[in-house]
């Protein structure tokens, strides 16, 4: 097995590298400068150079608010690149595992979203990711679309890291309490992706989509509160409404996804987001200690 990872230097890409190394699986995770997903020539060259047997697309334009004023780039990365990758994988007869988002939903459902739930993205980011899903399905490529939510880790830029940074200079943080979802540890998503490519035999499906998020439910306030309890409990976290914190992009009010399919059809045992957060905090502390020692 030879795994090509696009977006290899992002938080999910780095978690994937850790998990693949632990399993002694050969992988190629070039930096953006060496593999530009917006360039068909760059993608083609990567396939020719590495000759992968499976591709994981972890590359994404994830700046939700910035996408509202940078639609061209958002669609180039989240939609056009998926079309190009899908075509290359079809040509080479290899599976593609493409990571998508809960933001393809509008957040108005009283129940958890399942894979067949109606999509209705409220933002350019969500629209671009849904367009990427459409290209994937239309191509007939083997593989899966994996929708996830509120991804964070000890790597890269994410909500977890932002809260820790803000806590260094503030005594109080204000965080919205009326947006509900599921925080998902990128390392757990990486483990699920590895489980899929190593242990699961894919059968043809009219809807090649699976939802993956940690167990439980949270608001952004809940998530921030737990982060601070583990990291810096003396910093208070105050709940506010979305109306008190306007942003360029509209976000779903309740984008809680069901992960029953991941468990029942693919046999993956998941864990509660609070347990995952504890591990993330431990990993972050270990990295910080190493950096301090080196410094």
TrEMBL record:
Residues 1-284 form the RmlD-like substrate binding domain. Its EC number is 1.1.1.133. Its cofactor is Mg(2+). Binds 1 Mg(2+) ion per monomer. Gene3D superfamilies: NAD(P)-binding Rossmann-like Domain, UDP-galactose 4-epimerase, domain 1. GO terms for molecular function: dTDP-4-dehydrorhamnose reductase activity. GO terms for biological process: dTDP-rhamnose biosynthetic process; O antigen biosynthetic process. Transmembrane segments: none annotated. It catalyses: dTDP-beta-L-rhamnose + NADP(+) = dTDP-4-dehydro-beta-L-rhamnose + NADPH + H(+). Keywords: NADP, Oxidoreductase. It is an enzyme of class 1 (oxidoreductase). GO terms for cellular component: cytosol. Pathway: Carbohydrate biosynthesis; dTDP-L-rhamnose biosynthesis. NCBIfam families: rmlD (TIGR01214). Catalyzes the reduction of dTDP-6-deoxy-L-lyxo-4-hexulose to yield dTDP-L-rhamnose. Belongs to the dTDP-4-dehydrorhamnose reductase family. This is dTDP-4-dehydrorhamnose reductase. The lineage of its organism: Bacteria, Pseudomonadati, Pseudomonadota, Gammaproteobacteria, Chromatiales.
